[in-house]
Specification:
This protein is of the alpha/beta class. Helix content is about 35%, strand content about 15%. The protein contains 17 helices and 14 strands.
Length: about 450
């Protein structure tokens, strides 16, 4: 890799890569911590509805106050400083911007920001993976048509998994499965912001001390984030989801090849070429030794006896047969690694993962019995969790995307465990995010599969 030398050359030429960040939450703050130390990178502006939050993020991550005191975008460009604004769309339109990082975590806003960036000829890094699974394939297609890049965010697990899949295929391997680890028990699907910390294994006091958001962290515990991230991987790599979604089998780093292979070969998966998330907890709650809770993996297959013998000889984390082997990364650094996406896009013209098809979807699923008239509260809340399903099945059922299951009313009661559909909710068909989603469904539906009407 030579991204560092390319960035250094841009720095020496006085032509840094100019970046606009939308959303100064935890992910954005982690990126800012490293961006300050990266030659050839200029944070031209930060847009946040709460400018004080952006200033606090900069202060916490070591930025001198004079570096983010620019009174205008033009001043920030001239002096290499940073402008803080509430107006994301004005930032997107400013001259000289190379890359926009969308990190709001709010699907409708993220889709709106992405479309604005594409219209302005600016590359987009979609940190808000919730928006990517709502309409990513269509957004990427529009970006390509406009001559700009739409990319997943390196440091987040989907982009790292995409890299591992690409590595395996570029080395000539068949990819059997790919995925990540998490903390999972079946009852966690019904977790709420009130129960999240005990399920997460920390105290409310510890969570408050570091400013953890209960609703956001609950989406990791209740299975929604896993479904979202594996859907992003499927749509970017061509892997396909299992018919009944993720199984979350307990597995250590050293058991990946044994467990994350097809059932026909003695594993736990429905088929070859799929995604799976492994649990760091046994079903009785005991911790899995050498677990992969914050890591990622890919399992590959030896197609010849020679390669099988190589796997056996060099002990490439094989299963008992040495026909399957795993490569894993034990951790990911979240926003601290996001500069890789910025550099890859601006200096090589390459995304770090991009959706190319609609293979997988995430459908809102009732956490409890829901009554007609209730207002859904979206990802990580009290009403629904997100289930990964094949996109064709979601289209047949008219599945309600988890990313749009927020602030809308139920038309009819739903039982716990039931997936929700468009026809179950009162939806504003004039809403921009709804229109983009329905356009995406029509553009990427499989032959002979018509999306259901709301």
């Amino acid at each position: 890799m030579n991204l560092a030398s390319k960035l250094q050359a841009r720095d020496e030429a006085g032509n840094p890569v100019r970046v606009g960040l939308i959303g100064a939450g935890k992910f954005g703050a982690m990126f800012l911590a490293q961006a300050r130390l990266t030659p050839g990178l200029h944070i031209l502006a930060i847009a946040d509805l709460a400018p004080a939050r952006a200033r606090q993020a900069l202060e916490r991550t070591g930025w001198p106050a004079e570096r983010y005191a620019a009174a205008s975008f033009a001043e920030a460009r001239r002096h290499g400083s940073t402008r803080i604004t509430e107006d994301a769309e004005a930032m997107i339109r400013t001259a000289g911007l190379d890359v926009v990082i969308e990190a709001t975590g709010h699907p409708p806003a993220a889709i709106r920001h992405c479309l604005a960036a594409i219209d302005c000829g600016v590359h987009v890094i979609m940190v808000s993976v919730e928006a990517d699974v709502v309409a990513g394939p269509l957004l990427a297609r529009r970006a390509h048509a406009a001559g700009v890049i739409y990319s997943l965010a390196y440091g987040d697990q989907p982009a790292i998994i995409c890299e591992q899949v690409d590595w395996a295929r570029a080395a000539g391997f068949t990819v059997v499965s790919a995925g990540k680890g998490t903390r999972y028990l079946p009852r966690f699907h019904y977790s709420t912001p009130d129960t999240v910390w005990q399920n997460f294994g920390i105290t409310p006091e510890m969570a408050a001390r570091v400013g953890n958001n209960a609703k956001m962290f609950n989406s990791f515990i209740d299975g929604s984030k896993s479904a979202i991230e594996m859907t992003a991987v499927c749509n970017a790599t061509g892997l396909t989801p299992q018919p009944h979604g993720l199984g979350f089998p307990p597995a250590s780093c050293y058991e990946l090849a044994e467990i994350c292979k097809p059932r026909a070969a003695g594993g736990s998966l429905s088929h070859e070429g799929t995604t799976e998330v492994v649990s760091s907890l046994h079903r009785d709650g005991r911790p899995v030794e050498h677990h992969l809770q914050i890591g990622t993996y890919v399992v590959v297959k030896a197609e010849t006896e020679f390669v099988r013998h190589c796997i056996e000889e060099y002990r490439f984390f094989p299963d008992q047969s040495s026909r399957y082997s795993a490569m894993f990364r034990p951790a990911h650094l979240i926003g601290l690694e996001l500069g890789i996406s910025v550099a890859a896009i601006a200096l090589r013209g390459e995304p770090t993962g991009v959706p190319v098809a609609f293979h997988s979807d995430v459908v809102a699923t009732a956490k409890r019995d829901l009554k007609a008239g209730e207002i859904l509260d979206g990802e990580g809340g009290y009403c629904v969790w997100g289930k990964q399903v094949p996109a064709a099945e979601s289209l047949r059922q008219g599945g309600l995307p988890l990313g749009l299951a927020h602030g809308i009313a139920l038309r009819r009661a739903k039982k716990a465990g039931e997936m929700l559909s468009w026809s179950d909710v009162v939806i504003d068909e004039a809403d921009a995010a709804y229109r983009i989603r329905r356009e995406m469904e029509a553009a990427f539906r499989a032959p002979n599969v018509e999306p259901a009407r709301p």
